[in-house]
Every structure is written in structure tokens, then in C-alpha cells.
Amino acid sequence: xxxxxxxxxxxxxxxxxxxxxxxxxxxxxxxxxxxxxxxxxxxxxxxxxxxxxxxxxxxxxxxxxxxxxxxxxxxxxxxxxxxxxxxxxxxxxxxxxxxxxxxxxxxxxxxxxxxxxxxxxxxxxxxxxxxxxxxxxxxxxxxxxxxxxxxxxxxxxxxxxxxxxxxxxxxxxxxxxxxxxxxxxxxx
Length: 188
What we know:
Layout: H1 2-30, E1 48-53, E2 66-68, E3 76-81, E4 87-93, E5 97-100, E6 106-110, E7 116-119, E8 135-139, E9 148-149, E10 155-160, E11 162-165, E12 175-176, E13 180-185
Antiparallel strand pairs: 1-3, 2-11, 3-10, 4-9, 4-13, 5-6, 5-12, 6-11, 7-8, 7-10
């Protein structure tokens, strides 16, 4: 009698467990479905920078330093265009001196830690440093903020001032130097 009760109890326990296991297996097999997602991307407008005006010191005299402020018609300027409100990084490579075309003489050029304005709220074509709207006034051109954004129409402008210091025996002639501006999207 004891064996019969044990078998009866075993079957009463095993049958529901087996039924549940089989039910789960069949439910898992019959509950399959497929979904298809997509990968999307939009390539933004090309980023461009143009040197729109040279930093122009005009006539200078031997032994007399001359400065150009960043918000005058003689300031250097770069115009940037690209995707609306896009995050950009900007780097200026500034010269330490200007030289005669034949390389026979050099004149020192300096940039202070407030010689740069970056206008990032331009609504129409940039180009007028006296009409600075909004952005980054009076920053160090050697240490530009890491995150800048183009305006609501995809524009920004960089205005640059500086100072030349001719020596007392500076050779007469036209001196030049390259100011290199590099801009890139930074994904912000």
C-alpha cells in the first residue's frame, strides 16, 4: 500500500510539472515574432572658413609700436559657415613675427589675451567687427573655448586684433605673416 501511495503522489506531482514544461516550450515556440528597425543618418552641410579681411596695421614707424583692436575695420576676420547651430572647434595658429618678402628682416607681432571676438549669433552675412552681436568677446586667440556653436542660420565670425613692434632700425618695406584658422565639427 505504501508503494502505491508513493507512486500516486509522484504522478500527481510529476504530471503538472511535465504539463507546465511542455506548455512553456510550446508557448515559447509559438510566440515568435520579427521586427525590422532602421539605421538613419543625415550628413550636414560642409563646414567652410574664409579669411575675409587681413589684420592690417597700415603704415608703422621705426621704433613705434602700433595696435589694431579687434572691433575696427582694420581687424583681421574669418567667416565660418556650416550646419545650423552645429558645434565646432576652432584653432588659430598665430605668427610670432612678420617678415619682408625676401626674408631679410622681421618685425615682432603680438596678440594679447583679449585680442579676439567670436560672434556666434549672426543672422546675416558676417563681416562687420563693429557690429559684434553675441558670443565670445575679448578672448585669448591662443586659447579659444572648446565648444562653439554656429548661429541659427549656420554662421559665425572671428575678429582678431594685435600689435606690431618695429625696431628702431626696422628695414622699410611691406611685412606679412600668415594667420592660419582651422575649424572642424565636433559633434556637439
